[in-house]
Amino acid sequence: MDHRQPESDYVDGGGDIENDGRGSDASSFTEAREPLLNLKSRINTTSQIAIVGAKVYPIESLDYEMIENDLFKQDWRSRKRVQIFQYIFLKWTLALLIGLCTGLVGFLNNMAVENIAGYKLVITSDLMFNDKYLPAFAAFAGTNVILAICAGALCAYIAPAAAGSGIPEVKAYLNGIDAHSILAPSTLFVKIFGSILGVSAGLVVGKEGPMVHTGACIANLLGQGGSRKYRLTWKWLRYFKNDRDRRDLITCGAAAGVAAAFRAPVGGVLFALEEAASWWRSALLWRTFFTTAIVAVVLRSLINFCRGGNCGLFGQGGLIMFEMHSAIPNYTNADLLAVVLIGVLGGLLGSLYNFFVDKVLRAYTLVNERGPSYRVLLAAVITLLTSCFAFGLPWLAKCIPCPSGSEKECPTIGRSGNYKSFQCQPGHYNDLASLFLNTSDDAIRNLLSSTNRNEFEISSLIIFFAGTYFLGIVTYGIAIPSGLFIPVILAGATYGRLVGRLLGSLSTLDLGLFSVLGAASFLGGTMRMTVSLCVILLELTNNLLMLPLIMLVLLISKTVADSFNHGVYDQIVQMKGLPYLEAHAEPYMKHLAAGDVCSGPLITFSGVEKVGNIMHALETTGHNGFPVIDEPPFTDAPELCGLVLRSHLLVLLNQKKFTKNRAVCGGQVLRMYDAFDFAKPGLGKGLKVSDIDLTPEEMEMYVDLHPITNSSPYMVVETMSLAKAAILFRQLALRHLCVIPKTPGVRHPVVGILTRHDFMPEHVLGLYPELLHHK
Amino acid sequence: MDHRQPESDYVDGGGDIENDGRGSDASSFTEAREPLLNLKSRINTTSQIAIVGAKVYPIESLDYEMIENDLFKQDWRSRKRVQIFQYIFLKWTLALLIGLCTGLVGFLNNMAVENIAGYKLVITSDLMFNDKYLPAFAAFAGTNVILAICAGALCAYIAPAAAGSGIPEVKAYLNGIDAHSILAPSTLFVKIFGSILGVSAGLVVGKEGPMVHTGACIANLLGQGGSRKYRLTWKWLRYFKNDRDRRDLITCGAAAGVAAAFRAPVGGVLFALEEAASWWRSALLWRTFFTTAIVAVVLRSLINFCRGGNCGLFGQGGLIMFEMHSAIPNYTNADLLAVVLIGVLGGLLGSLYNFFVDKVLRAYTLVNERGPSYRVLLAAVITLLTSCFAFGLPWLAKCIPCPSGSEKECPTIGRSGNYKSFQCQPGHYNDLASLFLNTSDDAIRNLLSSTNRNEFEISSLIIFFAGTYFLGIVTYGIAIPSGLFIPVILAGATYGRLVGRLLGSLSTLDLGLFSVLGAASFLGGTMRMTVSLCVILLELTNNLLMLPLIMLVLLISKTVADSFNHGVYDQIVQMKGLPYLEAHAEPYMKHLAAGDVCSGPLITFSGVEKVGNIMHALETTGHNGFPVIDEPPFTDAPELCGLVLRSHLLVLLNQKKFTKNRAVCGGQVLRMYDAFDFAKPGLGKGLKVSDIDLTPEEMEMYVDLHPITNSSPYMVVETMSLAKAAILFRQLALRHLCVIPKTPGVRHPVVGILTRHDFMPEHVLGLYPELLHHK
Predict the structure, then answer these.
(1) Which residues pair with A593 in a beta bridge?
(2) What does DSSP say about strands B715-717 and B737-740: parallel, antiparallel, or unpaired?
(3) Residues 62..91 of A with a Cβ closer than 8 Å to B: which?
(4) Which residues cross the membrane (chains A, B) (predicted)?
(5) Residues with Cβ within 8 Å of residue A216, at least 6 apart in sequence
(6) 8 A C-beta contact, residue B190 and residue B516
(7) Has this prediction a pTM greater than 0.80?
(8) Which DSSP state fits B79?
C-alpha cells in the first residue's frame, strides 16, 4: 500500500543533517532566499523546518518511547545484573564529568572575559587620564569591533546554531525536537569562544544563556555513546545510545550551566526543572543536584586558587556574586506599595521588552539571511553603536565630587571599582562612566551597592536605563552568543534604583534592595519564571531576608506581563518555527476528535515486505514511522502488528539479510541481528537512504520486519478528543501515536498516525479555521 | 454478562466511607482482630484495604482521567468564556485562602505550644529553684501525661487517621489513593489540637508533619465544591467538583503546611514537588509558590504583631528560625573529610532509625488494635517515659560554672535560654537540662549556637543523643499527631555537635555548623530528600554560605542510606498497605505482558442494559469501572463503546429515567440529565448502592448507558509489556486501563481491565513467584 501520510514529521531533506564531530558545514545547505513573510507562512503550515541563523533546516523528533520489538526484548532478557550496575555507575560518572567540565568552562569563560575586558578598560582609562580622548575612543571601539567581528565570524561561518541565547534551543531539545546541530561539537566550540569574545567586546549580552547551552552541548558530547571515528567505542558507553538517557544528561547539563554562570547550584536545578525540562522525574532531581554540587565545588576550588593573584585581572571582579549585606528594616506599608509599583511597572516594561525583542529578531532575520558576511557586518555595526553609547553618553553626566572618607577608592583609575574618573579632574568621578565603562558584572555590582545613597544621579540612572534597555533589545539577534539575563538584570537594577531615588524619603528601604527588586521585576516580566529566579537571586545576593519581597515582585510582574504576551524564550522558540509541545491542550482541541486531524490514508508495510517497496517508501516520503500490518494468510484477519521506525529499517536493509520467499522466519531470525546495531546513534550520525546500495535482485527479495517492529505502540481510538490525545502524547513524550478505528475488524486496523506536528495550533487551525472563534 | 473481574479496585465494603462533615464515627467499623501477621498477608494479597489506627478500612482510587462521555462533552461545548474566567479567578482565590488559613493555623499552633509548654517549664523550673524536686517532677510529668491523654483521646476516639505524621497519607492521596477519612474535617480538627497538645506534652514529636497534613485538610475542605448540608452551594464552587482540581489544591496545601511550619516558602514548594506530589506541572509550581508566599506574609505580619508582647510567652521562642551568623572559614581538606564522615555516619544512623521506626510501628499496631482505650494508655505510658528521661537524665550531668561575661543570661530561671539552672547552685548551669527541659525548638537553637564552644559537655551530648534517638523511635506510632522532622533534627544536631567536639582542633569549622551538618545528614538518611531539605535548611538557618557543605552531606547520607532501606515515608506508606504507584516500573515487569496480570473474564454491560443487571453487578461486586459493549443489532460487530464508572451509574439509576424497551434514545436523552449531577462529590459523599430503591417493575426496565459512558478510555494491546503499561498508567494518573486483544474483531473487544492494584509488586509476584529471581 502506498498512500500519502501527511502527518509524519520530516526527516532529512537530502542527507543534510551532519554533525559528526568535524563541525557542520553551513555552506552545504540550500539557502532560503524567500522574504521573511513567505518563510513564516511556510513554517506555520508545515512546522517541519526550523530557522537557525536565518536558514531553514529540517528538524526531527526524538524517540523517548520504550520500543518493544522482539530484538530489544531478547536483549533485555539476556542483560545481566552486572550490566545494570555498569549502567548506574556510568550514569553517575557522566553526571560527575558534566559537572566538572561545565564548572571548568564556566570558570575559564569568566577568567577570559575579566582579563580581556579588563585590560581593554584599563588601557582606555589610562589614555583618558592623559587627556588623549580620541585615541582612547579609538582603542576602545576598535578593540570592541575586532572582538565582535571574531565572534560574529565564528558564529556565521562555523556554527550558526551558536548565535543567540541557546536556552530556547535547549528547551526545544528537551521537549523532543532535534533541530539542526543545536548540540553539535562545533556549536559547543563556537558557543564558548564566541561568548567570551562577545562579552569582552562590551556588548550588552550575558554569558548565562550561552553557559546553559554550553552545559547541554557538553552533556550531549559525553552522552554520544562513544565515537567510532576517534575509536572511543568503550562497551559501557553503548547503554547511553538512546534518546531517553541523553535527555537526562542534557537536563543535567543545562542545570550545570546555570550553576556555573551564577554560582547558584540550587537555582540551577530549579531552572532545569521550571524552564528547561519538559519531563521530569524525582530521580532526575537528585542527579541534577549532584551535578550542580560538583560545579559549585569546582568553581570554589578554582576561585580559591585565583585568590593568590594567579589569574590576572580575575578575582577583582570575577564570577557573579553580588553580596548584599544591607540589613532589611521592618518594611512599612508605604514600602510594600513601592514594591507593588515596582512589580507592576517591571511587568509592563518586561512584556514591552519581549515585544521589541521579537520585532527586532524578525527584522534581523532579513539581514541575516543574506549571507554570513552580512551577519558579521551587523554584529560589527551593533558593536560600534554600543561603543559609541558607552563612550559618548558619559559626557552627558556631571562630574561629582568624591564622597568624603573614600579618597582611597575614588576615583578609580586603571582598575575596577565604583568611581570612574573619565574626563573629571582629580577628586571627582563620572557616575555614568562607572556604569558604562565597566564589565556588566561590575556595573551590576555598582548598582546594587548600598553604601552611598547619592552615588548615582537621577539623570544618569535615566540615561543608563534607556541606554541598556535599547541596546539590550537591538543586540539580541545578532550572530553572537548572547544571553538575556545580564541585559535584563542591568536594565532592571537601574530601573529599581531609579524608583528608589525618585521615591526618596517616602520609602525606608535600602537603594541596593530597590535595585535587586527592580532586577527581579524585569526578570519576572521577561522570562516568566518564579521559583528558579527567586532562588537564583537569593543565591546571587546571598541575603535570604529579601525572600518575601522578591517573591512578591516576581508574582506581580509575571502576572502583569502574562496578560500581554508569552515569555521571551517561548517567543523565540515559536519564532524559530520549532514545534514545541505545550504541557496543556488548547481549549478548542476538546471539540475535535483524534481522527479529525490525521487526514488521508497512510503508508503501511506487511509483516514480511518486499525490499523494493520499503526502499520506495523511504525514498519518496519523509516519514519516520510506518505501521506494520499482518495480513492473511499469516493471520485470520488484518491486524496491527506494530510500528517500525525509519532508522531501524535502514539498519535492517543495510545488513541485507533477505529471503527469496515471503515467509515468516520465526525465532531464529533474531540470532542474525545484534540489538546494539539498532541502538540510536548520536545526533545526525544514523544511516541515510542514500547510504544503502541494493542490487535489482535484492530489491525483489523479502525481509521479515517482525524482529524490529515495536509490537506495542501507543494507540487511541479515533473518537478520542484531540485534547485527551494531546495530553497522552505529551505526557508520555511520544513521537508517533496510532489512531485505531472505533469498530475493529471491519475497517483497516489503523486510521492514521499522529505526530507532534498534528498537535500544533497552526496545523489544527489550518484544517479547522472556524475553531478560532472557540479559542 | 456476569463474570468475575478480580482486577478492579475495591469500593465501599458496606457503606463504610463516611466523612460528611459530622466527623467519622470510628466505632461503626468492624474491628480487625486478626494478629498483625494475618493482617499483613491479607494486605499483600489484596491491597484493597488500608490500616488507619490499626483498623482496616477500604480504600478507593481517585479519578484523574478526563472522562469524555456525551453528557460532559455537551457541557464543555455550552461552557462560556465567562465561566472560564470564573474558574481561573476561583482557582487563585482558593490558593489565597489556603495560604491564609494554613498560615494562621501554623501561627496559632506555635503560639499555643509556646505558651502551654512555656508555662509548664516555668512552673517546673520555679519549683526546682526552691529545691522542691519531687513536686517539680510531679507537676512536670503530671501536666505532660494529662496533655498526652487529651491528645491521645482525641486521636483514638474522634479521628484515628490524625495519628502520626500525615505526610505518608498526603503523599498517598496525591498518588491517587483515597483512604478512609484521611482529609476529613474531623481529621483536621484533631490534627490541629492533637498536635498542639502532643508537642506541649514534651514528647519528642514535631509539628511539621502534622502541619503538612493540616494544610492538605484545609485545602480539601475548601475544595469540596460547597456543601449542601450547610447551604454553601455557590455555583462557582461546582467547577471544583472533580479530583483533578482537588489534587492541585491539596498540593498547594501541603506546600503551605511546610512553609508555615518552617517559615520556608521556597522549601515548601520544593517539598511539595520532591516528596509530596506524584504529578507535577509548571502551572502548579507557580500556584504553590503563590500560596507559600501568602503564608510567609501572614506569618510575618502575625509575628510583627506579637513583637509588642501581645502573645504571652510566644516571641521568646516562636516559630522555628535558627539564624546562624557564624562566618564560614575557608574550609581545609581535613574539614571536608570531617564532613564526609558526618555524611556517612548520618546515613547509617538514619537508615537504622528507619529500621527501628518500622519495627516499633509494627509492634504498636498489636497494642493499638485492641481498642481506643489501649491507644490512649500507650500514649500516656510513652509520655511518662519521656518525662522520666527529661527529668531524670539531667541529674547525670555535672554543674558547669557559667562562662565569664555571661552573668546576665546564665543561669536562666523562669524563661527560655541556653543555660538552665536545674539543681545547680547560683552561677552554675546544667547543660543537659538546657536541652531536655526546653521546647524542642529552643533545644535545637541551643545546639546550633556557636558562641560558646564548650557549652555542652561531651558526656551530656552523648546522653542527649542516645535519649532523643531512642525516644524518637518509640514515640512515632502512638495515637498522637507526631511529626518526624523535629526528632530527627534534634538527634542529628546533637550528633553533629558531638562529632565536632570529638574532632576538637582537628577541624577549624564552627560547632554550630557541625550541628547543622549533623541535622542535614540525619534528615538525608531518614527522609531521603535532597533539594527540598537543602533549601529548608538554608531558609531555617538563613546562611547561604553553608550551601556547598549541606549539599555534600545530603548527597552522601542519602546515598549511604538508600543502600539499606527506603525512606521513612515510603516505609510507612507500604506498612499501611496503601497501594502506592511508583514512578518507575519494576525490572521484572518487562518480562510480563499486560494481558498476563488481568486474569479471568470481567463484567461488561450492553449499551442499553437492563436495570436489574446493573443493580446486580453493583451489589455483588466492588468494581468501580465497567466496560460497555455495543452489540448487534445496534452495531455490525461487538465493539467497545467505552467505560462507565460506578459513581455515574448510581446517579443514573437514582434518577430513574428508564425505558420499557431496549432502544437507543439518541440525542434527546442528554437533555434529561444535568452534567453537574454527575460531577464527583467530595470524599465519601457520593451515593451508595444501598441508597437506591427500585421497584421490581423498574428492575425489568432498560436504561441507555451511552450518555454517561466514557467513550475514549485509554487502551493498551494485551501484548504490551507490563512495564510499558505501568508507565502509561502512572504517567497519566489513570484509574482504569482497558486491555484489548491483539487481533480485533475475532475475540471479545476487551480482554480485561488493569487498575492500580494490578501493578503492585505483591500482586504481580503473587501471580508469578518465579519472577523474584529476575528481580
Answers:
(1) A721
(2) parallel
(3) 66, 68, 73, 76-77, 84
(4) 87-113, 133-159, 249-273, 279-299, 334-356, 376-397, 461-490, 502-523, 529-556
(5) A166, A170, A173, A183, A250, A253, A254, A257
(6) no
(7) yes
(8) -
